[in-house]
Amino acid sequence: MVNPGHGRGPDSGTAAGGSNSDPFPANLRVLVVDDDPTCLMILERMLMTCLYRVTKCNRAEIALSLLRKNKNGFDIVISDVHMPDMDGFKLLEHVGLEMDLPVIMMSADDSKSVVLKGVTHGAVDYLIKPVRIEALKNIWQHVVRKKRNEWNVSEHSGGSIEDTGGDRDRQQQHREDADNNSSSVNEGNGRSSRKRKEEEVDDQGDDKEDSSSLKKPRVVWSVELHQQFVAAVNQLGVDKAVPKKILEMMNVPGLTRENVASHLQKYRIYLRRLGGVSQHQGNMNHSFMTGQDQSFGPLSSLNGFDLQSLAVTGQLPPQSLAQLQAAGLGRPTLAKPGMSVSPLVDQRSIFNFENPKIRFGDGHGQTMNNGNLLHGVPTGSHMRVRPGQNVQSSGMMLPVADQLPRGGPSMLPSLGQQPILSSSVSRRSDLTGALAVRNSIPETNSRVLPTTHSVFNNFPADLPRSSFPLASAPGISVPVSVSYQEEVNSSDAKGGSSAATAGFGNPSYDIFNDFPQHQQHNKNISNKLNDWDLRNMGLVFSSNQDAATATATAAFSTSEAYSSSSTQRKRRETDATVVGEHGQNLQSPSRNLYHLNHVFMDGGSVRVKSERVAETVTCPPANTLFHEQYNQEDLMSAFLKQEGIPSVDNEFEFDGYSIDNIQV
Amino acid sequence: MQRQVALIKQSLFDQGYLDEQFMELEELQDDANPNFVEEVSALYFKDSARLINNIDQALERGTFDFNRLDSYMHQFKGSSTSIGASKVKAECTTFREYCRAGNAEGCLRTFQQLKKEHSTLRKKLEHYFQLARQAGPKETARRPK
Q1: Could you tell me which residues come within 8 angstroms of residue A134 by beta carbon, excluding any fewer than 6 positions away?
Q2: How many Å apart are CA A653 and CA A585, to the nearest integer?
Q3: How many Cβ atoms sit within 10 Å of the Cβ of residue A26?
Q4: pTM across the whole model
Q5: Residues A485, A487, A489, A493: what is their CA dihedral angle, to the nearest 10 degrees?
Q6: How far does the CA of residue B70 sit from the closest CA of chain A (Å)?
Q7: Where is this region: Disordered (chain A) (predicted)?
Q8: What 8-state DSSP symbol labels residue A172?
Q9: DSSP letter at A585?
Q10: What is the DSSP letter of B35?
Q11: Residues in B touching A632 (Cβ below 8 Å)
Q12: What are phi and psi of B26, to 5 degrees?
């Protein structure tokens, strides 16, 4: 199936590469993530029996770090839904955004809402435990399908021949292989692709994407690349951005429109999740944004970028690292996204702070120096994430504007508008303010990871980064960051490994893992990585290239977090930078919530303010996206309720975001 | 001897201690992994003992954080399901229902029951594996295909 030269096909792992149609499914590189060691062992055995190459992982952060480190090292990921350190859906989101790998969810829970959630989050399949080997035998189809679809996307995008010329080659090859090997599953695709192939058959001459011709190497969305992407999108307008124009604006050699298209798709999903909560707040944000744009702009972009980069892959340039650090710092408080869902959350004082700090650093505009970061970063003492904490006061979040010393101050003012986080932050407490900005704090708190999520650090400064630039639409908080945040946060919760959050890709994750409690679980995964010191978030980041990416990702998550982080209040630090995530995702799936919280919380400075902010955040509840404190339970149920809604964002007026609208 | 082992295993199924999932596990066992099932069982009991401990502590605290308990139990149920421990799984389900209903007493009662089932199963399986090893692991452990 995969092109011989293709680095990523199922057989890419094998030296054979090429079309060994017979053993095609063999050697598929699978990454399995499950906190239950029994299940993990059984799955491993089963997958090996299917002749797949299995890597086990019992912690989501470790999984992400593995994925980040080996960008093309895996073909498919199987993850459990309920994991203590991170919600499986969040992991799913991250993987989708950063690595674009097919992810299969599994759980003993077969309730429709959860399965639906899997679908809306983009899982390619959902398995009910106990998993039988027969179900695993066919997972290779998802890998193939995805590849085909990716090619198709490029072909369909618009029409410019040259863009797809190269793709066409690949596609043809792919198609051929696929036809050989694929089972009936792919027949449909084969037909359509065949047709396409004929149409475009003459276009081969394109060299633009020579990198992608003949094989589609996975594009690594580094921090800079993502920043460029976000900048282009913002310039065009989030809902009006089309891959072709974005590509032109970015002007990156070797980047194909399909790369952009798929990335845009993900980005939109992300934003949607983020903004779901704060739909209405979007309005507020607008005004806010305009005013503050300048200040935030850089910040938000930063955040966004950071996250993005994080997501991408560890390739974090030094600045990103800084950003990450900042983010990471801020985030740590964020409770682990996953936590909220599962009561198991250890009360790690995830919040140790750091989140707020990080965000601030971002505000400064791109250079999140560690210095800045730390500056803002509250010593974490504040952020104690208490499960029960409901950061009700949106004030937490918003005040950020003023408070954030660092860059982002602009955000704060706007906070007033959006109640933002306060309500949602309930769990995360970290809502440090930035959220306010976007009033998108709709936060759906669903997730409220009780312990760790530091509610969005509202650091306005920080948030702006992610939220602003990313989405021209006010409500659009950088979803990316959000997710990142979550991760970070979650880890923070764990141990405040905020650093970990930043460096998604890397070792930072270790930080997450460090939680002693989980240590025992890490039988498979050496906890060596756990050297997370929350405080060293910055350090961590720097050490890990990935950290940079993590930050970027965090940035994204932050924005998301904000919007959804209502629950995240835990951290209370929220300077109320209510990240009004552009209203998009209020509803962001619980996943987002986690993120948001984390991310925002980082603004170290945010944190400081948050305390004040908490009181002051007076974002007009108009949009209170965040629903008043969501307790864990509430969040969960709220979230689940949302899940029930086909398009979570229904209630929020998305700024025309919807995956379907992706204009290619 | 082998027959004895087979009979014991059969009885475990008949009595509902184990279900088809256990059979699936046995199928995964082969020459390269002759003790797979036993290893998985050992892992399960070790991990579930930890979970039981956590739940015990949580219950002792008397605060009855149902969400947390439910989450623990979800994990427990997942493991038990994977190994085919059907009685234990049933108790998990009951426990979760009580959690959702906020019935503390029901939870306590069910938990006691669950612990009992768990320990019974453990003993039975240990006995079974012991015999199986004596009888010759491959033959006995493998389910007739």
Answers
A1: none
A2: 9
A3: 17
A4: 0.44
A5: 180
A6: 8
A7: 1-21, 151-215, 554-589
A8: H
A9: B
A10: T
A11: 67
A12: -65, -35
Residue A19: pLDDT over 80:
no
Residues of B in contact with A638 (CB under 8 A): none
Which H or E run contains A149? helix A140-156
Residue A135's Cβ-count burial label (10 Å; 0-12, 13-18, 19+) is: middle
Q: Which of A227, A100, A207, A101 is nearest to A164 (CA)?
A: A207
- Chain position carrying tokens 């993900």: A266
What single string gives the DSSP state of each residue in A548-562? Answer: HHHHHHHHHHHHHHH
pLDDT digits 0-9 by tens, A417-467:
443 333 333 344 333 333 333 443 343 333 433 343 333 334 443 433 433
- CA–CA gap between residue A494 and residue A333 (Å, rounded): 9
Contacts of B53 (CB under 8 A, 6+ apart): none
Rounded-to-integer distance, Cα A554 and Cα A326, Å: 10
- With beta carbons under 8 A apart, name residues in chain A contacting B83: 38, 42
Q: Which amino acid is at A457?
A: N
Contact A462, A469 (CB under 8 A): no
Smallest Cα distance from A302 to chain B, Å: 37
Q: What are phi and psi of A559, to 5 degrees?
A: -60, -40
C-beta separation of A581 from A559 below 8 A: yes
User: What is the C-alpha to C-alpha distance for residues A378 and A611, in angstroms, rounded to an integer?
Assistant: 10
Tokens of A185: 């599953």
- Model ipTM? 0.89
Complete edge-to-edge strand list for the sheet that includes strand A76-80: A53-57, A29-33, A76-80, A103-107, A125-128
Hey, what's the torsion of the CAs at A146, A150, A151, A157, to 10 degrees? 150
> How far apart, in whole angstroms, are the C-alpha atoms of residue A436 and residue A401?
8
